[in-house]
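Crash report, auto-generated. Payload:
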Amino acid sequence: QVQLQESGPGLVKPSETLSLTCTVSGDSISNYYWSWIRQPPGKGLEWIAYIYYSGSTNYNPSLKSRVTISVDTSKTQFSLKLSSVTAADTAVYYCARGRVHWNFDLWGRGTLVTVSS
Amino acid sequence: EIVLTQSPGTLSLSPGERATLSCRASQSVSSTYLAWYQQKPGQAPRLLIYGASSRATGIPDRFSGSGSGTDFTLTISRLEPEDFAVYYCQQYGSSLTFGGGTKVEIK
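Recovered output after restart:
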């Protein structure tokens, strides 16, 4: 059974960089698009970025200047870095598996990241 | 960026009733790239419908999707107690966006 698990600090200071890792277990990381999606408390979903196992990437234009996504196929992990965070970046961050027609069939449980001093 | 507008914001219905949720796009969306998700409190979203009308694995046939162009609909034929949740539509065009969600609550 394929599972995704987010990990990383739950508290980040303003202006610092948020770093999260998603570990994929039970399957190879190949042949899928791997995404980060976030959800501020009480609000809707916002796609952040995706990376293909080969390394090609795409970013939400509104976040592109602050986001880096990377993949480590040997560890079946992919990672997110979001720089210069503010309180507006406080959210539950999900990692998700994207299929060829850009829908997400597998999600991690999510991790709450709070930006606060 | 394509904006998805979901309506109504909240739908108050009783178990056994039919739910009709709307998702309207600011410009035409290929049906291939239109999906619907269900999210319950404290849980990650779950894929219900992809390609506008195809049910994801394990999704009951009371869930159906339809539409094309700028207007898409998710229908739940007879609400079960476990169907009360928030529903999101999602599209991929030049970028990837989600609608704001429709909450289906118990009347």
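Post-recovery validation: Chain B has a mean pLDDT of 97.
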